DNA sequence: AATACAAGCAACCGCGGCGTC
DNA sequence: AGACGCCGCGGTTGCTTGTAT
């Protein structure tokens, strides 16, 4: 299947967006809605490729984007979701209202993965790192940033694991009710987590305390979901990726939504006011 | 104050999935 | 069935800002 370039790149602007470009894009989308990214730049009077416009909108201009630091509760949720979903940032972002996949990905790479490593956990598997004595079997890894600069001081040892070829991740389509559309905003960052995932990052969704907390991170505590207890990452992912896993996770997510519903009203007031104060236009 | 280094983040790139013809 | 076009995703890059020397 051939893949045409997204657009002719001759004469198109690249790099950082200026205020004027932002305004043009914003006004066009406000008037016509998003979509048709290929033709949008021309119609909006922008010398950008459609991809660039989409990215700018999704990651910066969208009105429902929550600005400001990632809260500890959001961190907690990101870690737990990552333990379950892996690097599927868009799926993770779909569960953090107002946060973009890019933001979460960056935050993970710059903060959370390093923190997990410093606490002795493999950020990929969320399991404790194993220090092996045999140097021949040892593999040193660095963080992404460090790889780029080769100046890392964060060198860790990870256990050599047999390669497991996971089934390809499933991209959810509109026919699946599980994922929230990006624009779905249930306006809740108010989970009152009492123990962070960093305490036991390998535990994924399992060791979340009791449901009485009524927090987001604990929404998988239900006994129905013991499938995820003490299973390897591979098993966990396989369950998720398989048809059985889909329905299971869908069920879990419904419970999650119910939890959010309980805090919905209060959240709307608080988050709404914050968002309003942070709007730049 | 100047320079070097590190960290953070916005943006780009290429790939793959899906819909249409 | 295959070609094509569009869209969205994850990985990566490189610029900007902050901090240390």
TrEMBL record:
This is Uncharacterized protein. Residues 123-152 are annotated as: Disordered. Gene3D superfamilies: Homeodomain-like. Residues 9-61, 62-116 form the HTH myb-type domain. Residues 9-61, 62-112 form the Myb-like domain. InterPro entries: Homeodomain-like_sf (IPR009057), Myb_dom (IPR017930), Myb_TF_plants (IPR015495), SANT/Myb (IPR001005). It is found in: Nucleus. Keywords: DNA-binding, Nucleus. Pfam families: Myb_DNA-binding (PF00249).
């Amino acid at each position: 299947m051939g893949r045409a370039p997204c657009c002719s790149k001759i004469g198109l602007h690249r790099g950082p967006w200026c205020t004027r470009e932002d305004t043009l894009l914003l006004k066009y989308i406000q008037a016509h809605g998003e979509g048709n990214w290929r033709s949008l730049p021309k119609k909006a009077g922008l010398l950008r490729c459609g991809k660039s416009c989409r990215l700018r909108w999704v990651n910066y201009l969208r009105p429902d984007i929550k600005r400001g630091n990632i809260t500890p509760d959001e961190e907690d949720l990101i870690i737990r979701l990552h333990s379950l979903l892996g690097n599927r940032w868009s799926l993770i972002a779909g569960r953090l209202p107002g946060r973009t996949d890019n933001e979460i990905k960056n935050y993970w790479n710059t903060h959370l993965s390093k923190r997990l490593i410093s606490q002795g956990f493999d950020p990929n598997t969320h399991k404790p790192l194993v220090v092996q004595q045999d140097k021949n079997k040892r593999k040193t890894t660095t963080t992404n940033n460090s790889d780029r600069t080769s100046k890392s001081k964060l060198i860790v040892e990870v256990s050599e694991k047999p390669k497991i070829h996971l089934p390809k991740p499933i991209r959810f389509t509109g026919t699946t009710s599980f994922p929230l559309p990006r624009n779905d905003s249930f306006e809740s960052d108010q989970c009152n987590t009492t123990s962070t995932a960093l305490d036991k990052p390998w535990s994924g969704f399992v060791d979340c305390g009791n449901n009485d907390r009524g927090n987001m991170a604990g929404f998988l505590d239900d006994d129905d979901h013991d499938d995820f207890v003490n299973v390897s990452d591979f098993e966990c992912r396989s369950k998720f990726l398989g048809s059985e896993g889909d329905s299971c996770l869908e069920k879990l997510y419904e419970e999650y939504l119910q939890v959010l519903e309980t805090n919905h009203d209060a959240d709307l007031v608080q988050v709404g006011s914050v968002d309003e104060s942070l709007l730049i236009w």
